[in-house]
Amino acid sequence: MTALLSPDELEARLRDIGATRYHNLHPFHRRLHSGQCTLGEVQAWALNRYVYQACIPIKDASLIARCDDPALRREWRRRLADHDGTGQAGPGEADGGVARWLKLTDGLGLDREAVISQRYALPATRYAAQAYVQFVRERTLLEAVASSLTELFSPQIIGERVAGMLANYSYVTKETLAYFDKRPPQAKQDSDYALDYCKRHARTAEQQHAVMEALHFKCDVLWTMLDALEHAYGEEGHIPPRAFRPGQFPALPRND
């Protein structure tokens, strides 16, 4: 890439990456949304995805720690609070996205302590999440911001996920999926800011290329996590030692 793109051309390139590389295209997600996954596969998805959810506030704190722009720090502090909570939730309320994800794993019959420990997660899940945190710690601030741009595409996948899972799994309720209630507006606010930041600060062809590569990297992180789930819990079933096994926790009661 040698030619400098206009800001709108850069945005178009970024959106094209999402259209062709985002993990809503992955076969595992297609099966998850269409009701083709077993209870064990749904549990494995939620348990492994917790590892990623738990790493988000860590990578956000890493970005804040190396940022000398107060406006950017304020924006990322809001993200940190969205995921980690503020400590001000009322009785019975889940404070922050990480806590709401635990409501999801609770609703799927998973032991909360086991989920939080991450000891039953797939090795590839843990490595992918760690790679994301490391990327944000070590790459340029522009690349770190750009790696969050998958949120441009998350409202679409959330809509598909909620509708599909409610329609196809009798043990899934709106309360189980309450995590996703707040995410579409949060993701839009997050991605609007990050996209504008990248369009304003990627001033050379090399910087624009780095922004696009950062988004490619993040798409690869999310795709790798689903590859691992498909390999371990799909038709072939190659579950590594120590990882979660379907039936490991008590089965959920059926209401169909």
From TrEMBL:
Key words of the record: Oxidoreductase, PQQ biosynthesis
GO molecular function: pyrroloquinoline-quinone synthase activity
Swiss-Prot/TrEMBL catalytic activity: 6-(2-amino-2-carboxyethyl)-7,8-dioxo-1,2,3,4,7,8-hexahydroquinoline-2,4-dicarboxylate + 3 O2 = pyrroloquinoline quinone + 2 H2O2 + 2 H2O + H(+)
UniProt signal peptide: none
Listed EC numbers: 1.3.3.11
A Pfam family hit: TENA_THI-4
Pathway annotation from the record: Cofactor biosynthesis; pyrroloquinoline quinone biosynthesis
UniProt xrefs under Gene3D superfamilies: Heme oxygenase-like
Record-annotated Thiaminase-2/PQQC domain positions: 12-227
Entry-linked InterPro entries: Haem_Oase-like_multi-hlx, PqqC, PqqC-like, Thiaminase-2/PQQC
Record-level GO BP terms: pyrroloquinoline quinone biosynthetic process
Family: Belongs to the PqqC family.
Function noted in UniProt: Ring cyclization and eight-electron oxidation of 3a-(2-amino-2-carboxyethyl)-4,5-dioxo-4,5,6,7,8,9-hexahydroquinoline-7,9-dicarboxylic-acid to PQQ.
HAMAP family according to UniProt: PQQ_syn_PqqC
Protein name: Pyrroloquinoline-quinone synthase
Source organism of this protein record: Acidisphaera rubrifaciens HS-AP3
Organism lineage string: Bacteria, Pseudomonadati, Pseudomonadota, Alphaproteobacteria, Acetobacterales
Gene name of the record: pqqC
